[in-house]
Specification:
Order of helices and strands of chain B: HHEHHEHHHEHEEEHEHEHHHH
CATH superfamily of the largest domain in chain B: Thiamin diphosphate (ThDP)-binding fold, Pyr/PP domains
Strand order of the largest sheet of chain B: 1-7-8-4-3-2
Largest interface: A-B, 51 and 49 residues
Number of domains of chain A: 2
Number of strands of chain A: 16
CATH class of the largest domain in chain B: Alpha Beta
Number of strands of chain B: 8
Number of helices of chain A: 15
Mean pLDDT of chain A: 92
Number of helices of chain B: 14
Distance between the termini of chain B: 62 Å
Oligomer: heterodimer
CATH superfamily of the largest domain in chain A: Thiamin diphosphate (ThDP)-binding fold, Pyr/PP domains
Structural class of chain A: alpha/beta
Radius of gyration of chain B: 27 Å
Helix content of chain B: 40-55%
CATH topology of the largest domain in chain A: Rossmann fold
Low-confidence stretches of chain B: 1-26, 28-43
Strand order of the largest sheet of chain A: 5-4-6-7-9-8-14
CATH architecture of the largest domain in chain A: 3-Layer(aba) Sandwich
Strand content of chain B: 5-15%
Strand content of chain A: 15-25%
Number of domains of chain B: 2
Radius of gyration of chain A: 20 Å
Largest sheet of chain A: 7 strands, mixed
CATH architecture of the largest domain in chain B: 3-Layer(aba) Sandwich
CATH topology of the largest domain in chain B: Rossmann fold
Shape of chain B: globular
Helix content of chain A: 25-40%
Largest sheet of chain B: 6 strands, parallel
Chain lengths: 375, 443
């Protein structure tokens, strides 16, 4: 387990922003640290073999290393990936696989995704990086109108399933408007792509390898606050974790709590607090894949607990929690004993100095559990 | 035209003189500087900059590069409006059989446009876009390509597909959205595609295919089988951000791709002088470090020669090339557009009657003694007959099975979608009769 101090140090150590700023650990005051959740390391299934202490950027690097080694057509590209990437995810890959397989592109997101689609239509594996999820919007047209519809519109004649778009997302403590966003819900409204968010290094490696090898275009959102902060024993070998499969992280009996990415660590703390102070047993579920969604796992849990809370960093209105809430109220109407609660970012742009009171932190999640279980 | 060019030349001369005057003023100033030892030697003038962004000479002259003062890029042409080859050395000397085949494809394309345009007017297909006036551009550029070369189009390149071997049945099936169509009836008419002919399926969003073409070319370069990508787009699409992305990526990543612009003067109602202020599209090439050429798109041999040379450059040097083919969009933008609302019939008539790619090639063939009126009448009759036969056939084919609403969204139908599939099935069990399900093929 990492202390919150270490979390902040390792997170803030070298974050290069798009503006060329270098944020440092000293940015955090001791008071702001309390807003950050504690990462609890997990144990990988034994069948995945030998493990090594690895943080999330290293786990992602390892996934790409394996993807490149096992597939000669695989290339990775984006802004500043050649020297290792602004978050170090592509460290040493150019040295190992050559300049024609790991390369910088001009600074143009629509170009990066369009280029990746083109490679994928030739049957090659394209791993494109968008430097921050906040900057994926220039490529929205290429993702939504092109990548997502490529197979359908051609009747299966052509497809771009070899494309994976990796992008750092989520709050980082001091990212302001354009280094903090969680745009998954914009993409959730788009049939044809898969959207995946991991909760830590073991998950990141296994899910990323699945995305890269999946026959559909995938958007893989990496919660950037965990790149350095989250460290655990990650299997060194080649393994994949299933897409469109939610995972019950912590079993419980009273309330179902659903989240993804960093939010799971906040939720875990809130669940612990609820257990300790209220004696409420929460079942914590990691959705992992936003679309195509695994609603069945949530349904099964809600039929048992009769209560549901969904939490995410992104703003509430139109956020993916709304989709889960409405689906569950329909499929589990007779089992629900309280209204479905959503604990989300407020409907404002992501603010700099107000980050702590913007995020759906432990206390807001705890309060939701308290209200729901007492309804 | 001539007088305009003349006055432009005159203006250039005046400017040139002004420049000379400024130069001599600068030299006087330089001399003064040297005397006062503020500059040591004449090499100072030649010193190259060391800025990483651009290595260039320094100058002491405050001078903007003014595009208006430069001569427009010339339009490459092989034969004149009468089908006469201007310089015999430029004649690609294609064999009779090939030229006749190219001509027949153009006429077939016109016949198809005639029939399907009328069919849309009668409400038998929902939408259509003709290629009138651009037949030479399309066939001339398709002819030098190899079957392994990959084509990305915009939507007005049916001739390219026809030359590559897309059958009339395939065209008709697509426009009719019937069960035999490759696309399973999901896209609007004229959104063709063919895997076996290496023609990527057309999509409506403009210019999105351009960076994709660069990426595909990069993959072909890695494959190393000597193939290139050709990417077609209009002068309007070239204003999209994706065009910029494509040119820049293709250049910096050394992609063997030919960026082929059909500059037909209009983007729906918008004339080119509201589309750009530079010298068309070809002039953008130098800004991106891309070799570019402008050709007379109504001259099939000019297009053919440019494409042949561009293909060689792309494949042998792994470099992009821009071809800007100048044409005129004789037809309406689409069946949803009435072009008389924004341009004169006289203007359209000039291009239709006096400078048309099909008649120009016909005159070339007639001059060679390969063609005559009798053959031409016969060809037109047969072409229309073939189209009508394919048309009648396609009309009778059922619509695709409704199960294809769900397939191909992903490689496999996910659980979340299976639930909706089930929901629709239940609904149709109750209300199926209201949905003309009998028009659809049973799976």
């Amino acid at each position: 387990m990492l202390t919150s101090q270490r979390l902040a140090q390792s997170t803030g150590a070298t974050v290069y922003s798009r503006l060329g700023m270098r944020a440092s650990a000293s940015f955090h005051t001791s008071r702001s640290l309390k807003a950050l959740p504690t990462f609890v390391s997990e144990t990988a299934p034994e069948e995945f073999g030998e493990t090594k202490r690895t943080n999330m950027f290293q786990a992602i690097n390892s996934a790409m290393d394996i993807a490149m080694a096992t597939d000669d057509t695989a290339c990775m590209f984006g802004e500043d990936v050649a020297f290792g990437g602004v978050f170090r995810c592509s460290m040493d890959l150019q040295t190992k696989y050559g300049k024609d397989r790991v390369f910088n592109t001009p600074l143009c997101e629509q170009g990066i995704v369009g280029f990746g689609i083109g490679m994928a239509t030739m049957g090659h594996t394209a791993i494109a990086e968008i430097q921050f999820a906040d900057y994926i919007f220039p490529a929205f047209d290429q993702i939504v109108n092109e990548a997502a519809k490529y197979r359908y519109r051609s009747g299966g004649e052509f497809e771009c399933g070899g494309l994976t778009i990796r992008t750092p997302s989520g709050a980082v403590g001091h990212g302001g408007h354009y280094h903090s966003q969680s745009p998954e819900a914009f993409f959730a409204h788009c049939p044809g792509i898969k959207v995946v968010v991991p909760r830590g290094p073991i998950q990141a490696k296994g899910l990323l390898l699945s995305c890269i090898r999946d026959k559909n275009p995938c958007v893989f959102m990496e919660p950037k606050i965990m790149y350095r902060a989250a460290v655990e024993e990650v299997p060194v070998g080649d393994y994949m974790l299933p897409l469109s499969k939610a995972e019950v992280m912590i079993p419980g009996t009273d309330v179902t709590v659903v989240g993804w990415g960093t939010q799971l660590h906040t939720l875990r703390e809130a669940c612990d607090k609820a257990k300790a102070e209220l004696g409420v047993s929460c079942e914590l579920i990691d959705l992992r894949t936003i679309i195509p969604v695994d609603m069945a796992t949530i349904e099964e849990s809600v039929r048992k607990t009769g209560r549901l809370i969904v939490a995410h960093e992104a703003p509430q209105t139109g956020g993916f929690a709304a989709e889960i809430a409405s689906s569950i109220q329909k499929s589990c109407f007779l089992h629900l004993e309280a209204p479905v609660e959503r604990v989300c970012g407020w409907d404002t742009p992501f603010p700099l100095v107000f980050e702590k009171i913007y995020l759906p932190d432990k206390l807001r999640c705890f309060e939701a559990i308290k209200k729901t279980s007492a309804f | 035209m001539l007088s305009a060019a003349g006055s432009r030349l005159a203006r250039t001369n005046v400017l040139h003189n002004n420049t000379l005057l400024k130069c001599s003023a600068t030299q006087t100033w330089l001399r003064t500087c040297r005397q006062s030892r503020c500059m040591s030697t004449s090499t100072t003038e030649k010193e190259r900059t060391r800025f990483p962004g651009a290595i260039a000479n320094y100058t002491q002259e405050l001078k903007f590069k003014v595009p208006k003062n430069e001569e427009p890029i010339e339009t490459y042409r092989v034969m004149n409006k009468k089908g006469e080859v201007i310089n015999p050395e430029c004649d690609p000397n294609l064999p009779e059989e090939k030229v006749v085949h190219m001509y027949k494809t153009m006429v077939q394309l016109q016949a198809m446009d005639n029939v399907l345009f009328e069919a849309q007017r009668q409400g038998r297909v929902s939408f259509y876009m003709t290629s009138y006036g651009e037949e030479g551009t399309q066939i001339g550029s398709a002819a030098p390509l190899l079957p392994g070369d990959v084509v990305y189009g915009q939507y007005r390149e049916a001739g390219v597909l026809m030359y590559r071997g897309f059958t009339l049945d395939e065209f008709m099936n697509q426009c009719y959205s019937n069960a035999l169509e490759q696309g399973k009836g999901r896209q609007m008419p004229v959104h063709y595609g063919s895997k076996k002919l290496n023609f990527q399926t057309i999509s409506s969003p403009l210019a999105t295919q351009m960076p994709q073409a660069a990426g595909a070319a990069y993959a072909l370069k890695r494959k190393g089988e000597g193939h290139c990508v050709v990417c077609y787009f209009g002068d309007g699409a070239a204003s999209e951000g994706d065009a910029h992305a494509a040119f820049n990526f293709a250049a910096t990543l050394d992609c063997p791709v030919i960026m082929f612009c059909r500059n037909n003067g209009f983007a729906i109602s918008t004339p080119t002088n509201e589309q750009y202020r530079g010298d068309g599209i070809a002039s953008r090439g130098s800004g991106y470090g891309i070799d570019a050429i402008r050709v007379d798109g109504n001259d099939i041999f000019a297009v053919y020669n440019a494409m042949t040379a561009a293909r060689k450059k792309a494949v042998e040097n792994n470099q992009p090339v821009i071809i800007e083919s100048m044409t005129y969009r004789i037809g309406h933008h689409s069946t949803s557009d009435d072009s008389s609302a924004y341009r004169s019939i006289q203007e359209v008539n000039y291009w239709d009657k006096e400078d048309h790619p099909v008649s120009r090639l016909r005159m070339y063939m007639t001059n060679k003694g390969w063609w005559d009126t009798e053959k031409d009448d016969e060809l037109k009759k047969t072409s229309r007959k073939n189209i009508l036969a394919a048309f009648g056939k396609a009309e009778k084919v059922a619509k695709p099975s409704i199960d294809h609403l769900w397939t191909d969204v992903y490689d496999e139908i996910p659980e979340s979608l299976k639930r909706q599939q089930e929901e629709l099935k239940e609904h149709l069990e109750k209300y199926g009769r209201e949905y003309a399900l009998e028009d659809h093929e049973k799976l």
